Amino acid sequence: MQSALRFHALIPERVTVMVSATTKRARNFQNSLGLFEYESVPPKYFSVGIQQLIHENSYAFLIASPEKAICDLLITTSGLRLQSRRAAYNYLVEDMRIDLDERPSWDTEIFRQCAEFGRKGRELLFIENVLRNG
Hints:
Strand content: 15-25%
Number of strands: 5
Strand order of the largest sheet: 1-3-2
Helix content: 25-40%
Distance between the termini: 22 Å
Shape: globular
Structural class: alpha+beta
Radius of gyration: 15 Å
């Protein structure tokens, strides 16, 4: 989630915990490579906004698009409720520190697709509105 945002150069912070979505049960573990957290999401929701990238023609990996990473963070953060477009803007810019100018266009359809699955749909549509209309 945050590591996908960092990979896409949308947040300035270094990410120390690899948080990923999974269709299986949530779990955490640590090994010599680092700390890993897995958050459970519905199977049909999981595939929305996932990209396969190939690194230096040697290996492929799946990563969330920037839009899907935001959706994942929003739906897996317990207690997070965005009650307005302004609250959504503040969440993106002040809380997540996303530089909205770094990405000239957003695939806002991903937010609509994720909202169809019912978890925090209203909040996802507020985010979609902020990114679509600036």
